Amino acid sequence: MMNTSIKNYKYRSAHFVNLAERYAIDWRLLGRHFSFRNEESHITIVFPSVIQRFGFPELGVPGLMKEYNVDEDNWGNIKSYDRLDKPESIDAWVSTVFVECYTNKPKVNAAWIENQAKHIVYALQIINPDAIRIPSDEVSNVLCKVKTFLEFKEDGLPRPCIKIATVYDERKGRLTFHELKTAIKNVNKAVSAPYEMVSNAQINLSRHDWRAAVLNCATAIEVMVKKKVMVYFDVAAVPDELREHVLKQADGYKRLRDLCNSLSISLAGMPNVENDIMKVRHRVIHGGYVPTFDEAYKAYSCTKQALTALKVPMFE
After folding, report:
1. Angle, CA 83 vertex, CA 82 and CA 88 arms, to 5°
2. How far is Cα 270 from Cα 250, in angstroms, rounded to an integer?
3. Measured between alpha carbons, how far is 198 from 17 in angstroms, rounded to an integer?
4. Tell me, what DSSP letter sits at residue 263?
5. Residue 2: predicted pLDDT
6. Coil, helix or strand for 54?
7. Staple 209 to which of 6, 204, 244, 259, CB 3.0 to 4.6 Å?
8. Helix 210-236 crosses helix 279-287 at what angle (to 10 degrees)?
9. Sequential DSSP letters for 57-98
10. pTM metric for this prediction
């Protein structure tokens, strides 16, 4: 499998990496491999496969397993299947990935290899939490309201009825090729703080922790607005001492917003953050208030709109 991207590397090694967490994985990613390069190495990460055992169409690179004499029955921890003749119904749980490394160094730091593999999985999970996610029995992607009521039929007798309404659904479809490339390209970068806070808010919504979700959203807003100010300072070459003094005075969203107005820093497209997030956050912190689901979800939606309006990058 030698190609132009790896022919200049002298050494090759193979590794199994335990991911620490048990991840649910979409069937379309089984057997798939993702590669990325930096100045030191070319890394290929391969997800577990059921290709050889159950005769599925070839999804990835099973030849890689043969090359290293790997028994596919002993890796991947793919746990359960609804129907073996219908691959899209597979419910797969993955906690191990296979890593192939090409490098010019005689020895490769195993901890570095492990870190790269985990970065790949985390980046893909952030971009598409329904394709790779922490077990769904712990973090649900769907939240429903269930209402019970009596309905009277023609005979005059009551019949118990249940109405289920989906009020929160963050599930996404399969990963696009563009999203996969974005994740791999940014594997060595950290997820930006606003996106991490929004991700935390999503998890807290699923856990019915409305207070934590609102606090996550408020923090994300303040961080992204402060970042706009910092970019302005960089362009204007403002001295560090003055930056520190100004930011110290502009503590909190309202003062940051006023600072942006005074410096003509555009916050065009910013939703109604003051009403939908900050007022609720103030009551949570200073009055012990527990927000309703509607308030927490509105804060979450408002924060996502702000990410788009301010064009906040996902990776730093």
Report:
1. 85
2. 19
3. 28
4. T
5. 43
6. helix
7. 204
8. 120
9. PP-S-HHHHHHTT--GGGSS---EES-TT-GGGEEEEEEEEE
10. 0.67
